[in-house]
Amino acid sequence: MAIYARPLAGRSVELELGQKHSRRIVDFVRCSYLGLDNHPEIIDGAIEAVRKYRALHWSCARTRLNFNLIGELEETLSSLFSARVITYSSVLAANMGALPLLASGHLTNQKKPLIVFDRHAHATLAFHKATIADETEVATIPHNDMSALEELCRTRENVAYICDGVYSMGGSAPIEHLLALQERYGLFLYIDDAHGISLFGKHGEGLARSKMPDRLGERTIVAASLGKGFGASGGMLMLGTRDQEELFRNFAVAHAFSASPNLAAVGAALASARLHGSSKLADLQKLLQDRLELFDSLLATKHEKSLPIRMVTIGDELTTIGAAKAILDNGHYVSAVFFPTVSKGRSGLRICPTASHTVDEIKSLCASIRMILGGGLVPSPQDS
Question: Are residues 233 and 344 in the same domain?
Answer without folding.
Answer: no
